[in-house]
Design goal:
10 helices, 6-stranded mixed beta sheet, mainly beta
Length: 620
């Protein structure tokens, strides 16, 4: 998600204010004033900003709104002010800048260094030099307008950008015309000038980067805003007639509150491609319901589902939605009776229930599924895949940073398949339901049909993990088919039953506990867990604001691909904030990198919080 929450530090420009804490007037700006480096200052930087953060960003006590305005609609734009700082317009409005694409002149020598730099500059904006040669009068279909505002403590800010059609020359309107387009952004600032965006862009993605981050954090289907909404986020390949198909049981359980697609701002438009889709639902009635969202050809009843997400939810009388914990299939006679009634046309089944009973996963409910169900009833513990996973049951206490140790066993029980497949070419992997990569990979040895492994996990909260095994087998002979089998699920509940203290991987310290205005406190960070010291590489350490997570400065960075990155020397940095008011700032160090494992895993850890108090007369 975008950086839309910040404990605003006082910028250098505010040091000359006539009133403490009051933003500077646009008219009072010094002649050499420059916006912060993160604010776009040309078309290329605005294009990058829009693709990364979307339309808005809050940082350094300022609100930046970047509007992408079409150049072909002949609209003129103005700004309406609202919120509690309506009367402070002259104090919080910086000059507005509009940037249009300016295509640099191409050097004549295509083999020169200058022409290479010309190509790189165009490439950053998605432009092709060859296409420009064929269309010398090419103009970008949009421009960017950058608006920058200061925030004021204990206020709300509302900014509405309206687009009006140009009236015929000489026309005098009787009253102000209705805008052809209008978009409103809202923000709240507390007494410490911590500002958050309160419109939907403050929590939903509106850029390609944010869309990817949202899925990484929440998955494709999630409950958001305290149960007010269900959000579906996914990449949809629209080429080939693929669309998003929503099935809910009952059919009137949800209403669509909002849906839109995000795309990279393309200067040269291309047909088809991938859309970054967002669809938001609100509860329409009280009760439990199933939701299935699939990507397929909606006009083709036999279309294959390219991607799908599903869940079981419940809405209370206030419309608050909660996700119900999925339960494993209970193989009983009632389930068999329901399936038989459906197959004989006596009782319909909903699509979500039908997917559950499709036991051989061929997309069709038939006697084959009934046969598998019969085997489950007659043989408890039966695995129709031929692959059985056994592991710990009940509560498993976690053990802080040292990891929780668990033993798993995978056995292959289908003799018919094993007779026809080469187990020397078999790979067995252990997965977790919420991970898209194997936790442990085991290579088959000899003709053994059982694999054992010991798994260590660092679990820091009470939670449930669902494990399963996957076996990939290469058939004998050149060009033989590859068979993939999935085991049953094993559910493990992690509970906080350990008295061992949590082991921190990163320690942040400073001797600057109380300092005067304008001081630059110094910090150092160091690794404390030997397990991580041996594994980490490509490490980056940054100093952050502990309340917002915003980066203050980098402490160090390593790009060494092979060697251990830390030699025991603490990383150090200086926080240059220029604080000019009585306040306490909370700092935290964050380390990210990769673990030197196979396959390699991303690593991230944070330190304890260190506070520094800024005051006019610090203690000796």
């Amino acid at each position: 998600m975008k950086r839309k929450s910040t404990a605003a530090f006082i910028a250098l420009i505010l040091a000359a204010l006539p009133f403490a804490g009051m933003p500077v007037s646009a008219e009072a700006l010094p002649p050499d004033w420059q916006p912060p480096e993160w604010v776009p200052t040309d078309f290329a930087s605005a294009l990058d900003f829009y693709g990364t953060y979307g339309a808005t960003m809050v940082k350094d006590g300022m609100v930046c709104i970047v509007s992408m305005e079409p150049t072909y609609d002949n609209l003129t734009y103005d700004l309406e002010f609202g919120g509690t700082i309506t009367n402070w317009v002259d104090w919080c409005d910086y000059p507005t800048s509009t940037y249009e694409l300016e295509i640099p002149e191409a050097p004549e020598d295509k083999n020169s260094k200058e022409y290479q730099e010309y190509e790189e500059k165009l490439g950053k904006m998605g432009l092709n030099p060859r296409m420009l040669e064929n269309d010398p009068d090419f103009k970008a279909p949009f421009r960017f307008t950058v608006r920058l505002f200061d925030t004021i403590p204990d206020t709300t800010m509302e900014r509405t950008i309206n687009g009006y059609k140009e009236l015929p020359e000489g026309t005098v309107p009787v009253e102000k015309p209705k805008p052809a387009t209008s978009v409103t952004y809202t923000f709240e600032t507390d007494k410490d000038r911590k500002t958050v965006e309160t419109d939907w862009r403050g929590w939903l993605p509106d850029s390609v980067t944010e869309h990817a981050d949202f899925i990484k954090k929440n998955g494709q289907l999630s409950v958001q805003q305290g149960g007010q909404y269900i959000v579906y986020c996914a990449d949809v390949v629209y080429d080939g007639g693929i669309s998003v198909v929503v099935t809910q049981e009952p059919e009137d359980a949800l209403d669509v509150w909002m849906q839109y697609d995000i795309s990279e701002p393309e200067i040269m438009l291309s047909a088809g491609g991938t859309g970054h889709h967002v669809r938001v639902f609100k509860a329409a009635k009280q009760g439990s319901f199933d939701l299935l969202i699939a990507q397929k050809q909606s006009f083709n009843p036999n279309s294959v589902e390219y991607d799908s997400s599903s869940g079981v939810f419940a809405a209370d009388e206030n419309g608050t939605i909660t996700e119900e914990t999925p339960t494993a299939i209970i193989y009983n006679t009632e389930l068999a009776v329901s399936l038989m009634k459906h197959l004989t046309g006596q009782e319909p089944l909903g699509s979500v229930t039908g997917r559950t009973l499709d036991l051989n996963k061929d997309g069709i409910l038939n006697a084959a599924d009934l046969s598998i169900l019969k085997m489950h009833l007659l043989n408890p513990g039966y695995s129709d895949a031929g692959l059985v996973l056994r592991g710990p049951s009940g509560n498993v206490p976690y053990k802080g940073g040292n990891g929780t140790q668990m033993d798993f066993s995978v056995s292959f029980q289908d003799e018919k398949i094993s007779e026809n497949l080469d187990l020397y070419h078999a790979v067995v992997e252990l997965y977790s339901k919420d991970k898209n990569y194997p936790i442990i990979t085991m290579q088959a040895a000899d003709d053994a049909l059982t694999w054992d492994c010991t798994l260590r996990l660092n679990i820091y909260e009470e939670c449930d993990w669902i494990f399963y095994a996957k076996m990939t087998i290469q058939g004998e002979g050149e060009g033989a088919p590859v068979t993939t089998l999935h085991s049953n699920n094993v559910k493990v509940h992690f509970s906080n039953e350990s008295d061992e203290p949590e082991v921190k991987a990163l320690k942040l310290t400073t001797e600057w506990n109380e300092v005067g205005f304008g001081s630059k406190p110094q910090f150092k960070a160091e690794l404390t867990d030997p397990q991580f010291i041996e594994q980490l590489r490509r490490v980056e350490v940054v100093l952050c604001d502990a309340d917002t997570g915003n980066e203050i400065c980098k402490m160090t960075q390593s790009t060494d691909e092979t060697a251990v990155v830390w030699d025991g020397t603490p990383w150090k940095c200086t926080a240059d904030l220029n604080i000019q008011e009585d306040k306490t700032v909370r700092f935290q160090a964050v380390i990210t990198g990769m673990t030197n494992t196979v396959p390699e895993r991303p690593f991230r850890a944070v330190s304890d919080v260190v506070s520094v108090h800024f005051c006019e007369t610090p203690a000796p």
